[in-house]
Each structure stands twice: as C-alpha cells, then as structure tokens.
Amino acid sequence: MSTPLPFNTPQRLLSGETLKVACLGDSITGVYYHSGGRRAWPEVLGIYLQQLYPESLVEINNAGISGNTSAQGLARLESDVLAHSPHLLVVMFGMNDVVHATMADYEANLRAIITRSMEQQIEVILMTPNYVYDEDPARPLAKLASYAETMRRVGLELGVPVADAFSAFRTVHDQGAHQWMRLMSDPVHPNMCGHRLFAALAAETITGRKIDPTELPPFSENLPHLQQLSRTRKSVKIVAMTPFDELIKSALSRLFPDLSVTVVPWKTKGKSITELEQEVMQIGWTMYRENPSLTEPDLFIVTAPDNFFGVSPEQFYRSFAIILNRAQSFGKPRWDCLVALPSVINPDLSEDQRQLQQLALNAALDKDLPIMQRPPGETTATLDLLITKLKALLSLHDSSGR
User: Fold this and answer.
1) Looking at the structure, do residues 170 and 239 belong to the same domain, yes or no?
2) Same domain as 117, residue 252
3) pLDDT digits over 87-146, tens only?
C-alpha cells in the first residue's frame, strides 16, 4: 500500500495552493499515438489530482520525449524541468536504458536526477517502467525487471517514494490475456488504459488515496482538426476505409456544401485484419514522416473487418490496435482519427460480427479515440446516421453546420 509523500506536496494540495508537477521520461511519458495523441499519464495525473483537490490548481509539465534514456533525461533536466521551478518531479525511465545503458549508468543517472532536483527544493517520486509482452529481443523481460528493481532500490536508499508500475502491470498480466491486452498499445507501450493506471499509481503515491483508473472525463471536441477546417471552409483530405470513403464525402458535402473534400480510399473488402495491419505500415504516419513533401490527411477513418479470418480474439484486438496506432500521427495530432464501427453500415450483425465490433470498440476506447457506432435498435439509413454522428463529433448545433 502506498503512503503519502513524507514532505510538502500533500499539504500543498490540502491547503488549496498551486501544485506544479513535472514528469520526466520517454515515449511512455510523452504525448504520442499510443494514448490517442492528446494526453498521456502526466495529463491524466493532473486530472486525478484536480478531482481529489478541487480547491487547488494543478499544473502539469510533460517532459517526456520518445527514445530518451535516463542519460538524456539528465542532460535536459535543467532546461526541461528545473528552469520551470516545479514543486514535484515524477521520473520514469528504464525502457530505453535496458537497450542503451548499463545498469551502473542507469543507477548513476537516476541518483543525479534526484540529487539535482532536491538541491533545488523539488520533491521527487520515481515510477518503474511497465511490464511488457516478452516479445522484444532488445528488451527481455528479465532484464527489464532488474532495471525496475534498481529503481526501487535507489528510491529506498535516497528516501524517494516509488510508484511501482512494473508490479502493477504484472498483476494485470497475471489475471489473463483479455485483461492484459487491454493495457497495451503494442508489445512495449501502454495505451490509454495503461496510462490511466500509471496516473492512478502516481496519484496514490502522492496522496495515499486510491484512484479508480477507469474514470476519465471525455474530450468535449472529438474531431478538432476537421472541426477547425470545416469552420473556415477550407479543403480537406481524408483517408477512409471502404465503404466510408464514399459515405464521408457525401456526408460532408451535405453538412458543408462549400468544403472541398478529397478522399483517398483504403480498399478493405475481403482483407483480413493481419493484411490490413501490414498495409497500414505503408500508408500510415510513417509514410508522411518519410516523405514530408506529401500532403498529410486531415482525417483517417478506420473500421473493422467483418470476419476473424482464423485469428483469435486476442490477435484481432492487437492487430486492430496497431492499425489505430499507424492511422494517427506520431506525436500530438496533425490529423484526426475516427473509428467507425461495422454496425454503422450493417445494423444486423451476426454473433461473430458483434464480437468483432466489441473488440474494435474496446481498442478505440483504450486509445482515447472518437467512435462512431449505431445504438441498439437504431434503423436510420447509414448516410443519415453518419451525418447525425458527425454533427455531434464536430459540435454542430444547427442544420447548416454553423
């Protein structure tokens, strides 16, 4: 059981003061596509602390950068953390240190980050890296476990609280494949479910109060990029899985007659989830990063196949999660990603198709992405349903779309 920090942070929250929190780490801390590209565990931690202490003002500085090791975190500690004078620093490194740093260097870097921060009167907690699928030869699970243990020991020796994500994720792993898969965006990176767990662990370590990691307020604007463009009546480019390629063009033409819409169809008929997973590696965010002269889309629309094609439910979920990963931009959103469930097209799903839809729905929810689905018993024509759903997603309040 975690206990509150033995210094000023809980008192600052209780007294209604402003609490400035910095979070230093790698891609598992920063805002990237694994958690939907709009928030990660530091932002969720801020939400949880604000909910617990509504009289206080919680400010979050997310200093997570993809690929970073503890050495790189130490190198930018002054500019990215200390210069902002936070009251509390949460440090999570290890996933990349396992690949690029010796255990001795990892320990020395953690000690230096803690010492320098404390010299500036900044309180510190550590967070161990998460448990992973044991599928990455560069990150063997046993080695990662030893780095997590080193962080625990450093925290104990320096009197710094440790939020033990490695153990918490392992507990979920041991509960079974269904529970475990819903924490993970890929074999190494957690999705938003995992980020909620990180945030709950950090909040409990700070306050001593249990947090329900399933609770998180949704976004008020679900397609902000498309919403802005539609308001200014600019042209838009959309990549859409069939048959949503034709449907989205018709729907937007109805809503915004002056909007120029270009749709790139992603043909999916008869393709398995694994085939689509392979295709998205070629047409997703990597294509635009490797070819910066290409015009990026403003919206990706992804749906799910209507057949398992011989894969297990777990493999279907994991493959669909990869598709969603690549249909987003790499970091903070450069375009929107919308998940349109099969029931939007077909209200009469078979039992297997309902199972597929539920897996796709879970994957979208677990990545904090907007979803379009048909409520049970709804028989509205597909195009009319799509227009209604787009109005809600774009926060349109009248029939003109203005």
Assistant:
1) no
2) no
3) 999 999 999 999 999 999 999 999 999 999 999 999 999 999 999 999 999 999 999 999
Q: Looking at the structure, tell me whether residues 178 and 296 fall in a common domain.
A: no
Answer yes or no: are the C-beta atoms of 181 and 194 closer than 8 Å.
no
Looking at the structure of the chain, the number of domains it has is: 2
Crossing angle for the helix pair 103-119 and 141-158, to the nearest 10 degrees:
30
Residues 6+ apart with CB under 8 A from 38: 31, 219, 332, 333, 368
Q: What is the CATH number of the domain that holds 48?
A: 3.40.50.1110
Two structure tokens written together for 53: 């202490």
- What backbone torsions phi and psi does residue 274 show, to the nearest 5 degrees? -70, -35
CA distances, 286 to each of 273, 281, 313 (Å)? 19, 7, 27
Strands 57-64 and 236-241: unpaired
Instruction: Tell me how many degrees the CA angle 382-383-385 measures, rounded to the nearest 5.
Output: 65
Question: Do 383 and 247 touch, CB atoms closer than 8 A?
Answer: yes
Strand ranges across the sheet with 371-372: 261-266, 236-241, 299-302, 336-340, 371-372
Q: What DSSP state is assigned to residue 81?
A: T
Strands (E), 128-281: 162-163, 236-241, 261-266
Whole-number Å distance between alpha carbons of 163 and 159: 13
Domain span at residue 157 reads 9-207
Q: Is residue 214 part of a domain?
A: no
Query: How many angstroms separate the CA atoms of 336 and 237, rounded?
Result: 11
Contact 311, 352 (CB under 8 A): no
Select from 180, 207, 234 the last residue of a domain: 207
When pLDDT is cut at 50, 70 and 90, the band that residue 174 belongs to is very high
Residue of 369, 394, 375 whose CA lies nearest to 254 = 394
Residue 16 identity (one-letter amino acid): G
**Domain assignment of residue 217, yes or no:** no
CA max distance for the chain:
66
Amino acid letter for position 293? S
pLDDT band of residue 2 (cuts 50, 70, 90) is: very low
* Domain presence at residue 4: no
Other CB atoms within 10 A of residue 376 CB: 7
Contact 68, 26 (CB under 8 A): yes
CB 344 within 8 A of CB 382: yes
